[in-house]
Amino acid sequence: MPARPDHIDPRITRSRSSVLDAVLAELAEKGYGALTIDGVARRAGVARSTIYRLWSDRAALVADAIDVLNQQPAPRTAGEESPRERIATLVHHLSDAMRNSPVAACLPALIDGAERDPTLRRLHHHYNDRRRTALVTAIADAVEAGDVRSDIDPQLAAVAVAGAVVYRRLMTSRPLCDDEVEPLIDTVLGW
């Protein structure tokens, strides 16, 4: 009996999860330049062929690991959440990711790798653009609703808010904590 198209072999799911965890561990420990498919396969306990069957190259593997393990909260249905609540949800999620996600430990290696590898740079920028778009949209909605000044540039405000969260993680020994998120948003958006 042929497998149903919507049925995914649980072994593939387990292997994929092991590989993605191994990628983040290798990236945090060794950096992008020293990350190898062999090292990831060894750490994940899978064959190299398993990795190449699921990902085209090292950059795609790293991009997928970051994307899968650091998803943003889905937008709620219109009317369920005000623009301010949506902004707070997104910034709290980013702040939590900078404190608790395995992705946070990989940021220095990702930034370095993106500077040196054009494929990783493109994937990293695409990932960041998608994340930023959600925050830009929420801020634009707040401007449109009259919740913040009309001269607020949603793009710049999103960079200022997210940039402050990432800065605290990368440049200080104190990642932004939950009770600092609302004051940060208030400061940047003038609430």
Automatic annotation (TrEMBL):
It comes from the Bacteria. Residues 36-55 bind DNA. It holds the Pfam family TetR_C_11. PROSITE patterns: HTH_TETR_2. Keywords: DNA-binding, Transcription, Transcription regulation. One of its GO terms (molecular function) is DNA-binding transcription factor activity. Gene3D superfamilies: Homeodomain-like, Tetracycline Repressor, domain 2. InterPro entries: Homeodomain-like_sf, HTH-type_TetR-like_transc_reg, HTH_TetR, Tet_transcr_reg_TetR-rel_C_sf, TetR_C. Residues 13-73 form the HTH tetR-type domain. This is HTH tetR-type domain-containing protein. The lineage of its organism: Bacteria, Bacillati, Actinomycetota, Acidimicrobiia, Acidimicrobiales.
